[in-house]
Amino acid sequence: MNEKIVLVLLLAARTFSTFSTDLSEFFEKKHCDPKCTFDSRNLSSKTIDLFPKTCSTVCSDLQIGEDCDLTEAQLTSAFLNMKRLIGNIFVVSTKFRSGSFLAGLESIECNNFDVMWVLNNQMLEIGLTNLTSISCVGFQVTENKKLVRLNMPNLKNITMPEFPKPNDKNTKLKFHSESSDFCITIEEMENFITANVINVDETSGKYCAPVTTNEKNLCMSPSLCQKVFGDVEVGPNTNLDSIKMIEIIFGSLIINGTNVTDFNFLENLKYVASFTADKSGIIVENNPNLQNISFPKLKRVRASNPATIVFDKNNKYLSLDVDSCNGLKNALGITTDWSPTIDGNDCCKQ
Ligand SMILES: *[C@@H]1O[C@H](CO)[C@@H](O)[C@H](O)[C@H]1NC(C)=O
Ligand SMILES: *[C@@H]1O[C@H](CO)[C@@H](O)[C@H](O)[C@H]1NC(C)=O
Ligand SMILES: *[C@@H]1O[C@H](CO)[C@@H](O)[C@H](O)[C@H]1NC(C)=O
Ligand SMILES: *[C@@H]1O[C@H](CO)[C@@H](O)[C@H](O)[C@H]1NC(C)=O
Ligand SMILES: *[C@@H]1O[C@H](CO)[C@@H](O)[C@H](O)[C@H]1NC(C)=O
Ligand SMILES: *[C@@H]1O[C@H](CO)[C@@H](O)[C@H](O)[C@H]1NC(C)=O
Asked: Which of 104, 111, 266, 314 is found 20 to 30 A from 162 (Cα to Cα)?
């Protein structure tokens, strides 16, 4: 989309709602200290003196935008003591190379808006290295041309806002960059995908090359252990006992040409997160004896293909079993129409 149009839409959406009483009501409910409230929104040389620099909890709907004429050092010093933000952050169209001026920030408690970092075309990393908790309906990092890393290694406590709207069901993390070097670390993905109420389907990119020495229980496929990087293929000659310890796969799971009747051999598998272009997260094919398609502990699957879980050419009766298909769909919190598919049809079309 054209940059200017994106910007106009974003700003219009915010302008109409943030000046409503919503935000002041929210600050009241959150017991904001007026001395620690910054309501100018736009931070620039005109407003920086009003920023409550000594407060560790700040209430603000903070906007750092095109008109921000401050240096990264000035911002760093303004935010030095801020650990908890009640409200929101919107970093848009800035020239900054890093967002690390907010590196001390530990938690964000949003009202109804997504945290957004957009159109920062010089920015290489978000750099919120101490950010641990967000309670927001969304966190969007998009349309930043040169972004190569999130550098948000500690964000793991992801919850819904305290006062969500009725239609808000989960927190959507939408991380994307136009740079082909953009990557997400496996530690970041593990933090995201294991959070309770999360949707990472719209995050795109690839994994950064993993540093195995960082992680005790990580191994590279075809080695198998608790956390496997790369695709896991279960075929006719696979020793199913070797699969038992896997909890998370940073890649796809392929079960192809076996005699298995159920997935009880995947007794610890909880998460599958693949980033390979167009590849499904779980592919189950040519298993004529398969009868039960529920996974003992599987909680979430993400893939860069909307058909996240695909069953093909297994026991032909499976494709008639609408209840099992929907059971699997519900167990994984899938709300789209596409997945799982059995012999090319999604659950409700069987
Ligand atoms: C705040 O910033 C936005 C874009 O960054 C700009 O459109 C708006 O005019 C600014 N508002 C004020 C009061 O300066
Ligand atoms: C981040 O947290 C660590 C550990 O609590 C602390 O030492 C460091 O100063 C914090 N970083 C910033 C930029 O505040
Ligand atoms: C997680 O975030 C929520 C909401 O911000 C907060 O109340 C809770 O204390 C946090 N938990 C941890 C372990 O940081
Ligand atoms: C699967 O079952 C068939 C028929 O019983 C048998 O011939 C084949 O060897 C089995 N394959 C495996 C991998 O156990
Ligand atoms: C499954 O095995 C068949 C036969 O070996 C092969 O043609 C097919 O590509 C495999 N499917 C996947 C998804 O690997
Ligand atoms: C299918 O497998 C699940 C767990 O793996 C189990 O809880 C369930 O009872 C099985 N269903 C049938 C009909 O055997």
From this structure: 104
Closest CA to 172 of 150, 149, 152, 195: 195
- Looking at the structure, do residues 141 and 256 belong to the same domain, yes or no? no
Residue 173 and residue 56 share a domain = yes
- The last residue of a domain, from among 199, 231, 266: 199
d(CA 108, CA 149): 20
| Amino acid in the structure at residue 329 | K
Q: Residue 290: which CATH number?
A: 3.80.20
What the block records as the tokens of 44 is 């620039």
Ligand 5 site, residue 283, Cβ cutoff 6 A: yes
pTM, two decimals, is 0.90
Token pair listed for 117: 């970092």
Q: Which two tokens stand for residue 238?
A: 């696979």
- Please check whether residues 157 and 71 belong to one and the same domain: yes
The answer to whether the beta carbons of residues 202 and 183 sit under 8 Å apart is: no
Q: How confident is the model at residue 18 (pLDDT cuts 50, 70, 90)?
A: very low
CATH number at residue 9: 3.80.20.20
Q: Specify the number of domains making up the chain.
A: 2
- Closest ligand 3 atom to 109 CA: 5
Give the Å distance between the CA of 292 and the centre of ligand 6.
6
pLDDT computed for residue 321 by the predictor: 82
